[in-house]
Amino acid sequence: MNSFQPNFLWGGAIAANQAEGAFREDGKGLSIADILPVGKNRFDHINLEIQEHVFYPSHEAIDFYHTYKEDIKLMAGMGLKCFRTSIAWSRIFPNGDDESPNEAGLRFYDDLLDTLLFYGMEPIITISHFETPLNLVKTYGGWKNRKLIDFYEKYCEVIFKRYKDKVKYWMTFNEINHAHTLTFLAAAILVKEDEHKLTDVYQASHNMLVASAKAVILSRTINPEFKMGCMLSLSPIYPASTKPNDIFSSYELRRRSLFYSDVQLRGYYPSYFDRIQKENDIKLEIGENDLEMLRNGTCDYLGFSYYRSSLHEEGMKILGNTGGIMGKKNPFLKETKWGWPIDPIGLRYVCNELYDRYQKPLFIVENGLGARDTFDDRGEITDQERMQYLKDHVITMSEAIRDGVEILGYTWWGPIDIVSAGTGEMEKRYGFIYVDKQNDGSGDRKRVIKKSYNYYKQIIESNGKRLDFKAYV
User: Fold this and answer.
1) Phi first, then psi: what are they for 423, rounded to 5°?
2) pLDDT reading at 194 higher than 80
3) Is the pLDDT of residue 290 over 90?
4) Cα separation of 293 and 424, whole Å?
5) Cα separation of 303 and 230, whole Å?
6) Averaged over 94-108, what is the pLDDT?
7) To which H or E segment does residue 198 belong?
8) Which family does it belong to (predicted)?
9) Active site amino acids
10) Which of 3, 198, 315, 418 is deepest in the core (most CB within 10 A)?
11) pLDDT over 80 at 167, yes or no
């Protein structure tokens, strides 16, 4: 029984800062991604200045800025119905607070969008994807300063008007709930582990939520056909035991993320936030019209990333990375070579959880497997583990649709190898297309099709019906 509608959006997803490179070309300014070095500890000691003899992977990435036409043509060979990417804010406003936009940056995205449309791919655009202009951190302190609301709204007005006939689906912020666990990437703020951290995080969050709402309201005046989405990292959190304290602690931790979608989809602060504010002495600076903006600027759909589930125990330290909250090892799940549990049924679980809560369309805009790909004696990459991961998650997504969940589409992260947001590595590979680029920046950037490329093509051509991959192994 095939549950996917004929107009289901099968696609792939990347981010500008993880693919484009050309970090100072054609008037682009620095973003927060451009000062993050390669390595697992890249967030431990953030230096806001570029250092000599330090390798910054975003500076060249996979050079998508110069190869996008060839790369999009190659990805079109899989039959992608849509393609998610972001607009680099610092290509449009190099400092974030500039008076006028950078025309060269606008022309680049005109050409990129035209290329996508030529190949029949619906553009899915993230407005801010972990690439806030660096000047907005250095001069204003990032999103805890509400001046960024106006800078963001001005940026949105420019790109909405410029691309109003080319883009239908937008998302305001990437994984906005990572303001807690990846505060520099998600909220562009530097925080210390002290009594003020939560105030800074929630003030930055409030300002981003207001900015998101203002963008939604603005979009309706420019093109009422726009579909405006929010985007969160929403892998499920399971209690580590049947102890009631573990169960309720897991529930509270889950609500820390759902707080963001509650506001963006319902239009008001949930009642449970009152206790969080009181117990942590959080006093937010809320503008006179902010709450009205939140009411009037609710999103049309919920985009989210799903990579894994998490196992939580009361009292454990809460840590997270780009895959979501990290918890205890789950003895019932296998793990990737990068230590992420593989939990396909968790995708069905979270789809039902979110649709039950909001009754708004869902869009799975990130799901994928990071692996260490190797060439065999024939010079081929037979990535069976990736194909199995894809198959299992398509099956559970189909089950969620049969459960009654409305899902607009599915964009695999990333269809071509790109720089890892969490560690800056290239060797943690997600793509159906291999890029010859290594962690130290070496490699000739040659593109090589993996066996999973034709497997995903088969899935798309059959609209999710043909899932056997024996022909590719």
Assistant:
1) -125, -10
2) no
3) yes
4) 36
5) 6
6) 98
7) helix 197-222
8) Belongs to the glycosyl hydrolase 1 family.
9) 366
10) 418
11) yes
